[in-house]
Amino acid sequence: MYGHYLAHASNGHNEMIRYFGLGLLENVIRFKWHTSYSAEDKSRIVDALVDLVQHGLLPYRSEKKYIREKTARIFAELMEREWPQRWPGLETLLESLFTSSVRFTGVSGKFHVSFTLVV
Q1: CA 68, CA 38: separation in Å to the nearest integer?
Q2: Domain span at 64
Q3: Number of domains into which the chain is organized
Q4: Residue 102 in domain
Q5: What does 60-114 look like in DSSP terms, one character per residue?
Q6: How do residues 42-85 score in pLDDT, each as one tens digit?
Q7: Which of 10, 38, 41, 116 would suit a FRET pair with 48, their CA atoms being 20 to 30 Å apart?
């Protein structure tokens, strides 16, 4: 999937190329999801998007806001089409994304936890 490759931060592309890759993924989901892809293809696209959310973004404060927002929008488009009938494990996935994104930061010599869903 070329959109996944372009959007993944580990591939070293600049933000505009990554945003373009996200746009490719968004177009696949929004306009061709129900007409052009088999169940196996859809499963690979879902896996690629989950991989992108889990491993393909920069740390929250380093990632550009428009990249985070586009990724969240694509994830929401996918949830709208697949959950709950064809994506029953979504709640578990969201819970693991949430718990893995807990950040510990020091403020005034004290530690506090800020919860952020890194998308």
Answers
A1: 28
A2: 2-114
A3: 1
A4: yes
A5: TTTS-HHHHHHHHHHHHHHHHHHTTTT-TTHHHHHHHHHHHT-EEEEETTEEEEE
A6: 999 999 999 999 999 998 889 999 999 999 999 999 999 998 89
A7: 116
Residue 94 lies in a domain: yes
Question: What interhelical angle do 39-55 and 15-31 show, nearest 10?
Answer: 150
Q: What's 116's DSSP letter?
A: -
Q: Which two tokens stand for residue 111?
A: 């530690």
Question: Does a structural domain hold residue 119?
Answer: no
Percent of the chain clearing pLDDT 90 (strictly above): 64
Alpha carbon distances (Å) from 37 to 43, 52, 78, 79: 10, 20, 14, 16
CA atoms within 13 A on the CB side of 78: 23
pTM above 0.90, yes or no: no
In a domain, 101, yes or no: yes
